[in-house]
Specification:
Blueprint: E1 5-8, H1 13-24, E2 30-33, H2 36-45, E3 51-53, H3 59-63, E4 71-74, H4 79-82, H5 84-93, E5 96-99, H6 104-113, H7 115-121, E6 124-126, H8 134-147, E7 153-161, H9 168-177, E8 183-186, E9 189-192, E10 199-202, E11 205-210, H10 214-221, E12 227-232, H11 239-252, H12 258-269, H13 279-283, E13 286-294, E14 300-308, H14 311-327, E15 335-336, H15 339-343, H16 345-355, E16 357-360
Parallel strand pairs: 1-2, 1-4, 2-3, 4-5, 5-6, 6-15, 7-12
Antiparallel strand pairs: 7-13, 8-9, 10-11, 11-12, 13-14, 14-16
Helix pairs in contact: 1-14, 8-10, 8-16, 14-16
Length: 367
């Protein structure tokens, strides 16, 4: 490998899963976290890996982790609150960057504010490189390719079966999004739009609209695309009430000081890094992703379905695959990259399959 893999946030829930996934694939990452005792213990457990102490409250400690050509994997969230030190450290060091966020505001920052700096540095920035939102990018790109030039829109739905409770980090990120502005890709351009502005029936279940990486990345691989819509089907019957909550929040946050107050309250009562579903619970959960490409009249031209591993194990395996492929020189460009333009469609499909989610034909059996 050309550079080291540095895993920041290694002792958190997603971080530990990612560390184990990297080791299982034969990598020897440098583990970094803010607790000396916990990171040293994890490094010792995983065959004596190298480790370091770093804390977002002291950005210089994060920068000290990196050398040029390293790959930094960050699992330290909520990213809107704590994600910037790792991102800036990678840009400053000339290291490739991968994170596990699913937070639209942070995703937007990476693409809109840091793309040119990353191009100048010759590094790749891969944000939201896990279940949020790699498989939807893959399914969407496959559907658009199969639909051909007539396709002008794509709808991508994310669903999970089983009863595995969300991790503390997932809950903290989700609560924080209620007060944050969102976006959509409509009419060939990115527009401001709150999360859960709409509800749609996808794969026979309700799902709410959300900003993701697909809105930035898929227009690059299908220049004729006019609308890219991403839908989260995690909320079940709560999907329609969530629209009302979203609308009310959008109104009250126009009042000066209200957004910061909501965010402060969420940060106080909903903590990250509080653990997540154990292996048995994860094993009872599966992922289902569907992408539907349509023409200008709304006629469906192609449908692609993916299914497989639960979101947490898939995210860990995807982070490991992405980091190792980037460290081996597998990135196809520099800047803020989507999954397809980062690796190419065929290589990405192989990587997603290795991480546990694959294409299937026929009726969906998960929902």
């Amino acid at each position: 490998m050309a550079g080291r893999i540095v895993l920041f946030g290694a002792t958190g829930y997603t971080g530990q899963l990612a560390a184990r996934a990297l080791v299982a694939r034969g990598a020897a990452p440098v583990l970094a976290a803010r607790s000396r005792e916990r990171v040293a213990a994890l490094a010792a457990e995983l065959a004596g890996l190298e480790w370091a102490v770093a804390d977002v409250a002291q950005p210089q400690t994060v920068r000290a982790l990196l050398e040029a050509d390293d790959v930094l994997v960050s699992t330290v969230g909520p990213f809107v609150r704590w994600g910037e030190p790792a991102l800036h450290a990678a840009l400053d060091a000339g290291a490739h960057y991968i994170d596990s966020t699913g937070e639209p505001p942070f995703i937007r920052r990476v693409f809109e504010q840091h793309d040119l700096a990353a191009q100048d540095a010759g590094i790749g920035l891969l944000t939201a490189f896990g279940y949020d939102y790699v498989p939807g990018n893959l399914a969407g790109a496959l559907a658009l390719r199969e639909a051909g030039p007539r396709a002008v829109s794509v709808d991508i739905g994310y669903f999970v079966s089983g009863d595995a409770a969300p991790s503390g980090g997932t809950r903290a990120s989700a609560v924080g999004l209620l007060a944050e502005p969102g976006y959509a890709f409509r009419g060939g351009r990115l527009v401001d739009e709150r999360m859960a502005r709409e509800v749609q029936i996808i794969a026979r279940r309700p799902a709410v609209s959300v900003g993701a990486t697909e809105q930035f990345a898929l227009p690059r691989v299908h220049p004729g695309l006019r609308d890219a819509r991403v839908w989260l089907g995690w909320f079940g019957r709560a999907s329609r009430p969530l629209l009302a909550i979203s609308a009310a929040t959008a109104v009250v946050t126009r009042v000066p000081g209200v957004r910061s107050a909501i965010t402060a309250t969420a940060n106080r009562f909903v903590k990250g890094s509080t653990g997540g579903p154990d292996a048995a619970a994860r094993a009872r959960s599966e992922s289902y992703i569907v992408a539907i490409a349509s023409d200008a009249d709304g006629e469906r031209l192609a449908t692609v379905q993916l299914k497989g591993d639960n979101p947490y194990d898939f995210t860990a395996a995807m982070l490991a695959w992405g980091a190792m492929t980037a460290a081996d020189g597998g990135l196809l460009g520099a800047g803020a990259l989507g999954p397809v333009d980062a690796f190419g469609l065929a290589v990405l499909e192989e990587g997603v399959g290795q991480a546990g989610i694959k294409r299937f034909e026929g009726n969906n059996t998960l929902l």
